[in-house]
Structure formats: structure tokens, C-alpha cells
Amino acid sequence: MLQSLKTANVHAVLFDLDGTLVDSAPDLAAALNHLLQQHGLATLPYAAIRPFVSNGANALITLGFGSGLSEAQFKLIKDEFIEHYQQNIANESALFEHLDATLLALDKNDVPWGIVTNKPAYLTVDLVDKLALTSRAKCVVCGDQVANSKPHPESIYLACQKLGVLPSTALYIGDAERDIRAGRLAGTQTIACAYGYIPADQDISDWQADYIVNETAELLTLAQSLTSPVKQGRSQ
Q1: C-alpha to C-alpha distance for 97 and 114, rounded to whole angstroms
Q2: Residues 217, 98: contact at Cβ < 8 Å?
Q3: For residue 199, is the peptide bond before it cis, meaning its omega torsion is within 30 degrees of 0?
Q4: Which of 16, 85, 167, 201 is within CB 3.0–4.6 Å of 187 for a Cys-Cys bond?
Q5: pLDDT single digits (tens) 164-175
Q6: What mean pLDDT is predicted for residues 151-170?
Q7: What is the CATH topology of the domain spanning 8-23+94-235?
Q8: Hey, which residues are catalytic here?
């Protein structure tokens, strides 16, 4: 139950981006299949691509082209992939169902929220801007803005610093084991999202998150239950 979380001690909420806050799989899958077609290869079903999206471009290219590419071939294909994806980054990508209402509830309750992702800044900024989240997020920390990306906790430490909260009073929400590990190492509470991009061979319960959500509506319920220290003071 969400009540098992120490919600009274949550002063800020941090989200992973792809597979947690934003459903970006359609555009990433389209980019991969575009490249496969360009190289005369068979395209892949969306259902086969989706579980690998959170692992980034390298994983998607390996999925589509195999592991036999030379370093030069891999770099060339990756450059093509990134170029096509960047040009079509928000054709179909959107907030997951109930996530806009979740963010609105956090704003209403004066609970600051931010984004912590391993996605590079030049792609993250573009996507976040096209989804009209730039002015809403209190911080956005990308994988190339720190020396060590997730599962290292550095990016979460930086986000908490930007929000002016202690990691022990933050909640990190993600759909990959590295998200939960990073949150645990940083000292935040953690939520694992079973609705995200999770390979079939992974057991999400092994990640040791504080809570697992199966439906996005659960995050809305959580957001509606949170109250910032500032708002608590107003009500006293």
C-alpha cells in the first residue's frame, strides 16, 4: 500500500524521464525501425522494442542490428539514430496517463518536483520543452551533467541540492533497477514503476524499492496525499 511510504517525510519528488514520467517509446521505436529500413533490414514489432527503451540508444541499436557491428559501424548507425530521433522527438511522446494530473497535484500542494535522467541534456531539454514541462519542473538533471550517471547517486544528490532538500526527504520514482539503486544509495525513498519499460526477464521485486506501482493512477493518489512543510505550516 502507498501508506507504507513515509509520506510525511516527502518534501520533494524526483522522476526518471523515459518510462516513468514520459512515454517516449513510440518515437524511439520509430527511429530504430526507420534505421532498420534504411539499412535494408526487417523492422521489429513495437512490443519487442518497448522493454529496451529505458536502456538508451546503445541498447536499441544492439537490439536491432545485433552485437557484430564494428566500433566504426556502431558509431555511424548511432549518429543516424540520434539525428532521426532528435528530429522526431515528440511526434508521439507524451506524459503517461494521470501524470499531468500528478504534477498538478504536487504543484497544488507546494511539493517541488524534478527530473533525473541518464538521457543527455541536448535530447532531454528538447523533449521536456516540447512537452511544456520546462517551466514546470523545478530542476532537470541529465546524465551528461554529472561525472557519474545512474546507478551512481550523484545526479540525485545534485537534484536535491537544486531543490534545497535533503535526499532523506526526497522520493525518487523510476522504471529501471539503476533508478532504484541510485535512489537507495542517495538515501531517498524509492518507487518502482511496473508500467514502465521493463524487460520480461527482470523481476521488479528484486530491486528492493520501497514501493511498486502497477498503475499510473497510484502516483496521482500519492501526489494528492503529499503536503509540503510550507503548506503544513500554513495550516497550523
Answers
A1: 18
A2: yes
A3: no
A4: 167
A5: 999 999 999 999
A6: 98
A7: Rossmann fold (3.40.50)
A8: 16, 18
